Each structure stands twice: as C-alpha cells, then as structure tokens.
Task: inverse folding
C-alpha cells in the first residue's frame, strides 16, 4: 500500500497570506488527522476528519480550518498567516484502529 | 483534560547501558497509552501500545496507574535506538507529549 502523502513538502509564505495543504491518506483509511509540530510545543493536534465530517478539534484559532473529500483526501487551510504558524504540519491517517496512525512526511511551512 | 508529560527533552545513554524514557499522564478514565518513534529522516511511527504488552525492538513499557506513568525501557541500548520518542494517550483524539530525543553514545 502506498503511504500517506502530503503536498507540497515545503512552502514559504508571507504574513497575512493564506495557505492550503493537502493530504492523501492510505487507501481504505477514512480518518485523517492533522498536527502541528514545532521544536517548542512538540506535536499538537489540530483536527480530525472522518467520512467528511470533523470529528475532533484541538485548541487552535479559527484561522485553522480543514475539510475532507469523499475520497478521504483532506486539506488544511490557514488564513491570515502569522510568524508563529511556521512549523511542520503532519497529516496522519488511520483505519479500524484509531490509535495506530500512519503519518505522512509533513509540509514544512515557513512564514516570513 | 488529558495531558501527557515527558520531563526529559534530551537523553544521552552509552551503548549497552539501560534506557528509560519517562512519561507521565493525567487522565480521569482508563487510559490507552502508546509510544511513537521518529528515526532520523523517517516518518513518525507507532512503536508499541500498553494493551499489547509486547516487546518491540527490545523496548517494553508498563502502565503504572498508581503513579500515572508509562515509562519506556530497554535493558541494553543500541546505536540504532537514537531517535525522537513520543508518549501518547488516546481519548477521542491522540494527545502527544513533547517528546524526548534519545542519543546513544557509541
């Protein structure tokens, strides 16, 4: 099976802009979760989508949003970018066992 | 709310010495706990879960409800164990600790 893929792998944006990140889960996985990884905060949960519905949400401002399509692919959007949004954004998919998450390589977002 | 604490950001251990990565949690129910690992230039992946009570790559972890801990242990460290280790707890969502970077000194 192909692993979780994320595009783009690297992104440089300017403060105030918006960005959309994409994640393709492992075939057959219906749950997709997004995490923000930074050296100071570690891995922080953003949200989880299951069958096109947001199932769980972390403690991030409304500038962070996501969606999931009928083929389970997911996108994450960040509007009005701030310098502090610079991070590695990880996507993970899971199947029948929600704790066993398969992670993608991440998208490195740099906000200048 | 659930919380996972890994008190050590960095841990260096000599090859052949025992390894213990600490993890404490706060959770009001019956927790399900896991260890994830990220080797250099590889993706984050599941190492082990407490329910399975198995040993993976020589690592074991015992859930101690009295001390609310789930420390990861290995009796003899190997160089290939150098990695970033995350303790995680699941209840509705997976909550990760801040991670411990383990370095094995040859």
Result:
């Amino acid at each position: 099976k192909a692993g979780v893929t994320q595009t783009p792998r690297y992104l440089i944006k300017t403060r105030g802009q918006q960005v959309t990140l994409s994640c393709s889960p492992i075939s057959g996985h219906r749950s997709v979760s997004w995490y923000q990884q930074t050296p100071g905060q570690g891995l922080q949960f953003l949200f989880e989508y299951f069958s096109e519905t947001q199932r769980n949400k972390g403690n991030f401002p409304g500038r962070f949003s996501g969606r999931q399509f009928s083929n389970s692919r997911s996108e994450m959007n960040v509007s009005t970018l701030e310098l502090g949004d610079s991070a590695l954004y990880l996507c993970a998919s899971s199947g029948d066992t929600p704790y066993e998450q398969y992670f993608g390589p991440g998208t490195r977002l740099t906000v200048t | 709310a659930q919380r996972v604490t890994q008190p050590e950001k960095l841990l260096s251990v000599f090859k052949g010495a025992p390894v213990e990565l600490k993890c404490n949690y706060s959770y009001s129910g019956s927790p399900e706990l896991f260890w994830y690992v990220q080797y250099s230039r590889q993706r984050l992946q599941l190492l082990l879960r407490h329910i399975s009570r198995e040993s993976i790559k020589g690592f074991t972890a015992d859930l101690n409800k009295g001390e609310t801990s789930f420390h990861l242990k290995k009796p003899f460290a190997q160089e290939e164990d150098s990695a970033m280790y995350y303790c995680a707890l699941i209840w509705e969502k997976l909550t990760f600790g801040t991670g411990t970077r383990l370095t094995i000194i040859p």
In short: Chain B has a mean pLDDT of 91.
